[in-house]
Amino acid sequence: MTRTNPIRELRDEPILGRDAEIASLLATAYEARLVTVTGPVGVGKSRVAEEVAQRLVADGGATAVLRCNLHEVFAGSPGETAALLDALATALGASEGGPLALGPLVAALAGLGEIVVFLDGADRCLPALRDLLGPLLDGAERALFLITSRERLGASEEHVFELEPLSLPVGEALDGPAAELFLRAARRSRPTYLPRPDEVPALVALLRELDGLPLALELLAPRLALFGAVDLLARLRADRGILAARSPLRGGSAGRPRLQSLDDAVTSSLVALAPFERAALVDLAVFEGGFSLAAAEAVIDLHGFTADGRPLPAVTAVLEALRDRSLLQRVPSLTGGVRFDLLRAVREASIRLDEGAPTPRLAGARVRHSRWIVDLASKRISARHVVEERENLFAAARRVLDGGPVTARAAEPALRALLLLAPSSAEATPFQALLALVEPVLDVTQDSGADPSLVGRALVLRGAVRRRSGRGAAALKDLANALHVGKTLGFPAIEATAELELSRLFLERGDLPAASEHARLALAACRVARARLAPLPPGGDSKPAPSPSTAETGRRSSNFPMGRATEPLVSEAEIQLLLAAVEEARGDRTAAAELIARAVAFAVADEEPILEARARFAAALAAVDGERVDDARGEIARIRATEGLVGDPASPLRLALLEAAILADDPRALPASVVAFDDVAARARSRGLVALEAEALLRGALAAVVAGGAPRTAIAEGHARLRAAVETHAVTDGLGRILVPLGAIFDGHASRSLVDATAIAEARTRVFLAISVDPSAVVTSALGRAISHALAVLFPAVAPVASPPATARGAVRIGAEGHWCETPEGGLVSLERRRPLARILVALAKAHSQKKALSSQELQEAGWPGERMLASAGVHRVRVAVSTMRKLGVGKFLQTVEDGYRLDFKTAVVLADE
Prior knowledge:
By secondary structure, the protein is of the alpha/beta class. Helix content is 56%, strand content 6%.
């Protein structure tokens, strides 16, 4: 019996994204006799195995391929072994004379020599195949048995190759093998289809929803002939039944039952599981973004189940069984451990089965998931661990918004999740997600009876989020309430965090005295909190003693006990860095450098590697600004050696941006720096790090202008980069406030309408204030210097300085329309958002030149022109305005006299527009 059934010809279309897998499988096939290709439903096991078999024949590694299609052949069959023998005989072309016995069949296979026996879709007949494998392997010694199955056979000679889904796009670019396959399939029904730019985000989201499974991609792509990308994404999320095929997939082999629905195939896999295995999958469905073994053990609860009367296996054994059936996917771990996840199709099929069960499990699993979040929050975990669990934390926070009354049991996990997320949200993309969540979560939990220390910390978080989103008044209210909670209940750690955020808020407003004062109050509260936690309890237990405030109030959550580790202290290093920013804004770089060095020392002493890296970044920036390149490079080397650097995914790119800034400081290396900035921007874009991408684009724009010496092409290139940066970044955030005035300067140069030194100085001052505030900005003073150099190239008449033009000590300089004011001590006050105060200051400056004082009525008319009000109300407004100006630092030269108010005649006052 020499007749064979050669595999069909390969499809005209090449396999996408599988070159590495095919090469690895070919190498294995030359060394092994039994190879099983496993993987989830729809991953393309048959297609890849076909290609490998065909190439083995083409390369001379086999003479022919005998294909036996086993897909669903044995569903419900009582005689699986006989059916398997019959299928093999059919593949051999010998079924006409009736089914073959095992002996003649093995002899027939042995007579074919070096062939590939391709058993496709062995999932349903694994028991029978396991029984027959020994005789088949012993009898057909020269044959290679190539098997595709969702589950491994478990034979001693078996080599298992796990096929994973196609690689998904990184970032928001529509590229990679999954995207290429999806677009190729879409063009079968729309041959000229080319995605519009506004469709790309929805298409990328579609690919992620489909987990890169080739079958799902090919099933859904033709629907683009009927739906737009955004509508198709919404329909898929609402009903995965849209994945059902309308017609057989192209390229199926003759006689092979086609998969008409991905979800039907997944559901059939779940139904075949033991009840306790399905229960474990339902419990795992509450995780988002993957889970560790420890997390799975905390959430899976299999009490009440038995394994056919035997003791139930451990959770680890259950996970191993699910993994062997391709129902769990191993995913990368940021912390170096083992991490798993469910494909969306598996997760949603598990949830659907649970919804129809007599006793649904999902609600209990969510409670256990929340308990695990609380336990996670009670530990000192790295920033890298927080980033790894980000999706689970967001899921726990969103859960409290599902509706119904919110108790402390539900509120506390949500609040803790938000508080864990906050430090990892420095970049714009996670920040926007946090911004969308923090408001509603705090709204629904405010009357829940949650731990007051949690509520206080959450108020600080919302204040910080509101500040960063440009809502200063709302931020001030939250921070004041948090400060009240901290002081009333005796939580100095909350006082410290609230004071720290208040300092940032006032620094952002340009109120340097207030910023400095709140930073020093934060420092004092921080030291009180540390002193309370310092003593150890009797017996030398390593856990800190409870703080007096906790002992006095006796406050403990009855549902989720709160450890003191859940109330983290503000680091003294962080406060020193903020004080350094205040000194930088004042122009005292010597004091700023001393404070930065102090921050490094505190971070090292407190074993805060992430903060140490931040402080060393600041030290490197100061070195760049002082043109001490060797010192800057030394700090970069120390940052790389900082163990905690790995906890921040953006740190390698910040380092690359800093190194590009060092290049830009050398006129000979400016062209190379432009290339380096482009590289950082591209890498940041691929990782979704929007703020870093915008900063790299901004720096590239400045370097392009300076490197080109401001010819028209260089200005056009810089302007294009700047516009890209503005479009990339949320303009309400700190970096956005740098980009907007710079954009006005570039636009003014293009139109030749903004060329006077006064306007440039004013715009530059606004840029300088924004640089001093934004804690996520990488290159602070060095960025200001780069901006000045670019402006000097654009407008040669303007001196290349980073702050308003210097005046003689003892003089006051006021910007155009009073937007800024430089005090005699060199402090910089921004009045851009306080227009009445700015107009009053300009009026006083003009009266000063005539040695005049202005009455309350005159100041009212200057500050609120054309507005009618009662005389008493006008006088009150002026008094408040004068008091505010004094608090901002103008008080030393603003005098109250008998006939009104004036600027001190002994102080020189310079109006920038005169």
